[in-house]
């Protein structure tokens, strides 16, 4: 019984450590997906609301991201950017694409030499619903959905 509980405790601990909902801005979250390992970061840490340019204050998080990418040799990186569901779908997709290109460009300029594909996915594939069950706005959920992910292949 003790071993079973210990195993369950370890499983629960490892699952909790991967939960993106408790991640402070600027912290990189790792998770395993069928596509491969994914490194995720809040877009709010990297970009001003509605803007495509990287913030000057994003440098430490980007440095950490580049270091982690370089430490895991791969043949391809997918740089994906997501928005929340506010605003026009097409504008969100365009903003996400330009943001993904900005992150990929920064990584290239900082010695990440792996080939990269950029994907601006806008409000597609939210981590959580952008609204509460009663339909009211959920700013915390929207913030979780605004993210940059690097898929390591």
From TrEMBL:
Residues 120-147 are annotated as: Disordered. The lineage of its organism: Bacteria, Pseudomonadati, Bacteroidota, Cytophagia, Cytophagales. Keywords: Cell outer membrane, Membrane. Residues 34-153 form the OmpA-like domain. GO terms for cellular component: cell outer membrane. It is found in: Cell outer membrane. The keyword Membrane applies. InterPro entries: Bact_OuterMem_StrucFunc, OMP_bac, OmpA-like, OmpA-like_sf. This is OmpA family protein.
């Amino acid at each position: 019984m003790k071993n079973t509980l210990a195993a369950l405790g370890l499983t629960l601990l490892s699952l909790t450590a991967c939960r993106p909902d408790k991640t402070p801005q600027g912290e990189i979250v790792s998770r395993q997906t069928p596509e491969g390992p994914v490194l995720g970061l809040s877009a709010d840490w990297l970009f001003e609301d509605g803007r495509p340019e990287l913030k000057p204050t994003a440098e430490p998080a980007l440095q950490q991201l580049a270091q982690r990418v370089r430490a895991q040799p791969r043949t391809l990186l997918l740089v994906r950017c997501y928005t929340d569901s506010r605003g026009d779908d097409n504008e969100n997709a365009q903003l996400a694409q330009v943001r993904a290109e900005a992150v990929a460009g920064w990584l290239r300029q900082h010695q990440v030499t792996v080939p990269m594909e950029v994907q601006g996915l806008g409000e597609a594939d939210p981590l959580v619903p952008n609204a509460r069950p009663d339909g009211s706005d959920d700013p915390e959920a929207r913030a979780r959905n605004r993210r940059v992910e690097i898929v390591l292949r």
